[in-house]
Amino acid sequence: MNEQAGIKPYVIGLDLGGTNSVFGIVDARGDIKATTAIKTGSYDNVEDYVNASVDALQVIIDQVGGIDKIKAMGIGAPNGNYYNGTIEFAPNLAWAHDGIVPLAKLFSDALGVPVALTNDANAAALGEMVYGVARGMKNFIVITLGTGVGSGIVVNGQLLYGHDGFAGELGHVTMVRGAEGRICGCGRTGCLETYCSATGVARTAREMLAKTSRPSLLRDIKPEDITSLDVSIAAGKGDELAKEIYEFTGKMLGEACADFAAFSSPEAFIFFGGMVKAGDLIMEPIKRAYNEHVMPIFKGKAQFLVSGLDGASAAVLGASAIGWEIQ
Amino acid sequence: MNEQAGIKPYVIGLDLGGTNSVFGIVDARGDIKATTAIKTGSYDNVEDYVNASVDALQVIIDQVGGIDKIKAMGIGAPNGNYYNGTIEFAPNLAWAHDGIVPLAKLFSDALGVPVALTNDANAAALGEMVYGVARGMKNFIVITLGTGVGSGIVVNGQLLYGHDGFAGELGHVTMVRGAEGRICGCGRTGCLETYCSATGVARTAREMLAKTSRPSLLRDIKPEDITSLDVSIAAGKGDELAKEIYEFTGKMLGEACADFAAFSSPEAFIFFGGMVKAGDLIMEPIKRAYNEHVMPIFKGKAQFLVSGLDGASAAVLGASAIGWEIQ
Asked: pTM above 0.90?
């Protein structure tokens, strides 16, 4: 980070979501100096999207002293490929759902600064390493619990991209083999994501409610309307069934982490995303199942942490961290 | 590798097994210039073991022109910790089964050259990268199929050691969850190793023979005497039950590799060890199950290879590769 040099003290971070694209100009300490946003879905082709982005960015770039103050830009985006700077077949992006879009190059050409891009979970992992609870760590795994389950794996101080740029899809390890496994959006069955994402938790709630006639606050909600937030609220009020749903979810996450330890033996597992707000309700069963299932040699070695980044700005900070990584 | 410099053209490789310790002096091309061996189990304490090793080594060191020709020494050993140069609680080594032995330092002090140490599967992976089928690859996984199932994971051209030096224990990911899982030597149940090691294959044979009354050449052998080699020979003769045992084993390996792809998205999976001699009998079901179970994004990207190193010398070559890595 070259803040000391005083020349280019900022990077642009872009948190590119299916609905909103949020831009921030960030300094080396992780202070967001200016932000702006556009609607991702309002553009049919990527040229229009980039033009609108640059128009919005120009205002905040001027606020911080002009493009000469900007070292680089980092983008966290669904289906982002770091090696190629592309977004590839992203189902939720109108201008990238059926092809390969060279988004890093388009922004770099338009702004005249280097641009790097990766997927949102990798951006979250870099964000934790640069600004968050993983500062100083060289081996850790960030698991994002949101609509899906994503992951960013850091090994020897570097993000693990693998041969093709798509490593770190831990939401899609198989947890339930055979015909019993839940159907996953990836076209397979039994993936971790189908149980431990927000939608997976809601599904567990519906299954548990249907299977028994036990009383629960969740019975006041139409089954198809139940969300993981409802489960969290009910559990917070002491609802036993809701607590069991978190037990089930955390147990599966803990068992998955035990397998991940056999792979990369991280110093910490860091959980990120909306579901983490459930706190000990989810973290305690994770830790318990991990300690029950991990190889003895790894027992007690890994920390289980919750992201230290402010939820609203975490994704932009993570994206900006990609920018700092550019040499 | 500094062969061109002409000064120190060799490294010593030590393949340290429970029974034998095999030493080789190896050049940068992977040619073994001289070898010697001692019985690992003949020594009660590590000082005697190192003294006997150095005595044996002295003869072959002199053969290649003296210790000045030796750049370094690499050791592949069970429970080897690369970070500390130690062997830790290795159940099959009399002088290291209940403690932490600083073997790299002991050899370095005795020989006056730098010494590095890692576990045998990591050594195999480095051997493939330096001398074998993984030359030029930066992301691959070596899976050793022997008495146990081991692994060496290479990421960004580096061995994955993790926070504590013990990463890459893929023989101990859980493949069968719950009460049905086979008991593993690591104290847990359902580990990949309990199904896909040589002993796991023999166990599958006994289970399949007991479960049905189908004819099989394996019925000519006392169940408790069946080995994976017997299964391989029977399958080679067209025995249907034996072929099914390999189908079952390969299917589980292929499903496990599909999960490993979600982790590090390697360019290749490389199989190593006695069981690989079964050839297509084991490799075909692995590939088939992998392609059925891997995430669509990874499909068709990874190669499935068999170690190209000569079996007798592979372990020594792998160990010597650790020596070349020392800066």
From this structure: yes
